[in-house]
Each structure stands twice: as structure tokens, then as C-alpha cells.
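testing teh design pipeline on a random one, pls ignore if ur not involved
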């Protein structure tokens, strides 16, 4: 392969909007005689001829200053800097480029965020999670197009292996266990034997990882085409139980994840979290939400699952649509999606109909229309509106004329009650 081919492939793979900022970064680095490299998963994906999901750049120099200069020179590009880690992100409408100063990372204790110091390219590659992510593609200078591969990641790519760079890798950062399962599923790679042995030995270090970081790793898992494969693997490895004792995942839950995507092609993170907590009691769900530092919406959905699950028997019987709406409307929709994926078959059907149709049903007549017909403001007006909605859901009325007839009956009955 000619040296420039990988860079050409990168440019072809990028969205058109990202090519100009990338070219500007490379030009700026060249003008300052700075060596800049494409690193990590971007290089791996190029070598595998896979779509490049991320563009991560490293230079032996001041990445923050470079990113700021480039952002100023371009329109519609935002620059966000993170001085603690020596990183910057350039964002536009359809792209994201991450630029970082080559650095050394040290860990004060397991699970802690690393202390960061400027370093060499070799230092920067050594801090990576797996050998296949510890390669760099030179973007400037005489070595442009050449790959730096100090840990023989290309051999592991060919062998389809995930190998950590050193024995303490999972102890330093146990989120690498979650990434191992995610990469293994996405790339169809297996863990190298020592890596597997060290992972099983150190899986309990996941307890030391803060909830925010665990939540973000789970979010990345949920974005994969079949997250259930990854979660099954993590369960087999004991990783879910190490995160929190209430977390479990088996073949039936995996099947529910698949059913969810059949009825909802793009489930949100909140829906997946609710489904992950499907069998948890309310106290267990509360503990789960606290452990993962879930936001308010996610916490409410996860905590509602137990109450929604308790409706399975009622919803499995013959129940009018209006009653289904009455039962399910108080709950967050994410918890109801969990029911539609994991509940008993008849309850799943009712929940799915509620989510796709029944919750959106409204009568043609609204409060203003009823007031124009002689309704008096107050509780009876609300009761009449609810009765009209129930009648429409249950097929008792099929047209505006039907609704008007029912509304007159309701108003006349109300008038007789008042007299």
C-alpha cells in the first residue's frame, strides 16, 4: 500500500464538511513544524476498511493553541477546550474532530481519572486500551502516510485479537472491560488469553468507577446495532454484577431488546435503561439509578418500571382501549416501552397500541366547543371531555356528529343533576 493511500481513504470517508477543518489543522501543524497524527480507533478502522466513526488527532505540541487558531480561521466551527487533559474539540454541523497534546497518564488509584502530563507520541500510544487502538498515522512531514505501531497492533488486527498493553490495564481503568465487550462485538474480535485472564481477575475494579463514566459507557453500548450481545457478554464476565448487584442480563432480556427495536427502530438511552431494569423492584431501581448517576428523566423511568410491570395481569385480560390509556398514561413512556418489549404477550400488544396510537387520540370537540354548546366551566367540563375521549377510543363515536350528540346528552344530564 502506498503511504498516502490511508490518508486518501480517510478524506473519502469523512463527511464533506469535515475535510476543510482537517486540512486546516494539518496545514497549521505543518506551518509550525509540528508532527500531527491520526490515532486510536480511526487508524484501526481505516486498516480494516470500516467506516471511520471518530477522528482523533494527537500532536507533540500545544493542541489547544492549534485548535483555537483553526477555529478562528473557519466559519461555523466551534472550539471547546479541556485544559486539564490537553484536549480540544472542533465541531460543525456534521462533524467532530478531537485534537490532543500527546500525553502521559498516571493513575493515583484504581478508578480515578488519570493525572495528565505532556509527553511523546510513544507515551500517548502506551496509554491506550488495546494494541489495535495504539497505532498512529502520520499526517505531516517526511513520514506522512506512515504508521507507527510500537505494540504490533497490526498483527492483532490480522489475528482478530484484543490485547491490552500491560497487566495493570484493567486495574488502572476498568471501563476498558466494557470497551472490550463493545469492540469484541462490533469487530467480531476475541480477547487474547492473558487479557482475558487479567480481565476476569480485575473485573471487581468496576466498583471503583464513578456512575457518570459507567453511564456513558452504557450509552455507547446502546448505540451499537445489537447492544444485547454486548450485555450478555458483560453478564458472562461478571461485569454487570460488579457495576451493581441488581444488574442482570440473560437470553430472555436479550430477546426483549430485539423486540424493542422491532417496535421502535431507534430506542433512546432512557428506554434501554428502563428495559435493563425491567425485573428490579422500586428500591432496587432507585439504587441502580443512584449508582449510575442517572438524570431526572432516566431515574423516573427506571423507578416506574416496577409499577408498570405490576399492570401485566390487568392488561393481559380483555381491557377497553380507554382503560389501557387510563392505566398507562401516568407513567413515563420509556417505562411503557419496556413493558411493550418485555411483558407478557397480550400486555405487550396493549402497550404497543397505546404507544403507537391510543395515547394520541383526541376527540374533535375541545373545551371551547363544549362551552359554545352551553357547558359550564368546572369539574363537569373536564369529566365530559374525558368521557368524549374514552368514547372515541372505544369506538362509541366515529364522527364529529356522533361526538356532538354524546356531548348534548352529557350536558343535559349535567343540567338535570344541577336542578
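output:
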Amino acid at each position: 500500500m502506498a503511504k498516502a493511500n490511508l490518508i486518501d481513504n480517510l478524506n473519502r470517508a469523512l463527511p464533506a464538511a469535515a475535510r476543510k477543518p482537517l486540512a486546516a489543522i494539518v496545514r497549521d501543524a505543518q506551518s509550525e513544524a509540528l508532527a500531527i497524527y491520526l490515532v486510536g480507533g480511526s487508524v484501526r478502522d481505516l486498516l480494516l476498511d470500516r467506516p471511520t466513526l471518530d477522528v482523533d488527532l494527537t500532536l507533540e505540541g500545544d493542541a489547544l493553541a492549534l485548535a483555537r487558531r483553526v477555529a478562528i480561521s473557519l466559519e461555523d466551527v466551534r472550539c471547546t477546550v479541556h485544559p486539564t487533559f490537553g484536549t480540544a474539540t472542533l465541531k460543525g454541523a456534521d462533524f467532530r474532530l478531537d485534537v490532543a497534546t500527546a500525553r502521559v497518564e498516571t493513575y493515583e488509584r484504581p478508578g480515578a481519572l488519570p493525572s495528565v502530563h505532556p509527553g511523546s507520541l510513544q507515551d500517548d500510544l502506551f496509554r491506550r486500551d488495546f494494541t489495535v487502538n495504539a497505532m498512529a498515522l502520520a499526517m505531516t512531514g517526511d513520514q506522512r502516510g506512515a504508521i507507527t505501531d510500537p505494540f504490533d497492533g497490526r498483527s492483532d488486527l490480522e489475528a482478530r485479537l484484543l490485547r491490552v498493553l500491560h497487566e495493570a490495564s484493567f486495574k488502572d481503568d476498568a471501563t476498558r472491560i466494557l470497551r472490550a465487550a463493545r469492540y469484541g462485538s462490533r469487530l467480531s474480535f476475541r480477547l487474547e488469553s492473558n487479557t482475558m485472564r487479567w480481565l476476569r481477575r480485575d473485573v471487581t475494579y468496576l466498583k471503583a468507577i464513578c456512575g457518570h463514566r459507567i453511564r456513558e459507557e452504557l450509552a455507547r453500548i446502546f448505540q451499537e446495532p445489537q447492544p444485547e450481545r454486548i450485555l450478555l457478554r458483560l453478564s458472562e464476565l461478571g461485569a454487570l454484577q460488579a457495576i451493581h448487584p441488581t444488574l442482570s442480563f440473560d437470553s430472555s432480556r436479550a430477546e426483549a431488546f430485539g423486540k424493542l427495536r422491532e417496535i421502535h427502530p431507534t430506542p433512546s438511552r432512557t428506554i434501554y435503561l428502563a428495559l435493563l431494569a425491567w425485573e428490579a423492584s422500586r428500591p432496587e431501581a432507585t439504587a441502580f439509578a443512584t449508582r449510575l448517576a442517572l438524570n431526572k428523566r432516566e431515574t423516573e423511568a427506571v423507578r416506574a418500571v416496577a409499577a408498570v410491570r405490576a399492570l401485566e395481569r390487568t392488561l393481559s385480560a380483555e381491557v377497553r382501549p380507554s382503560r389501557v390509556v387510563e392505566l398507562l398514561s401516568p407513567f413515563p413512556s420509556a417505562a411503557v416501552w419496556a413493558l411493550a418489549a418485555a411483558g407478557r404477550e397480550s400486555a405487550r400488544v396493549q402497550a404497543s397500541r397505546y404507544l403507537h396510537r391510543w395515547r394520541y387520540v383526541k376527540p374533535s370537540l375541545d373545551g371551547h366547543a363544549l362551552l359554545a354548546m352551553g357547558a359550564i366551566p368546572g369539574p363537569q367540563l373536564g369529566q365530559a371531555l374525558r368521557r368524549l375521549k374514552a368514547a372515541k377510543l372505544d369506538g362509541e363515536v366515529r364522527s364529529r356528529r356522533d361526538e356532538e350528540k354524546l356531548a348534548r346528552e352529557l350536558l343535559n344530564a349535567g343540567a338535570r343533576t344541577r336542578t
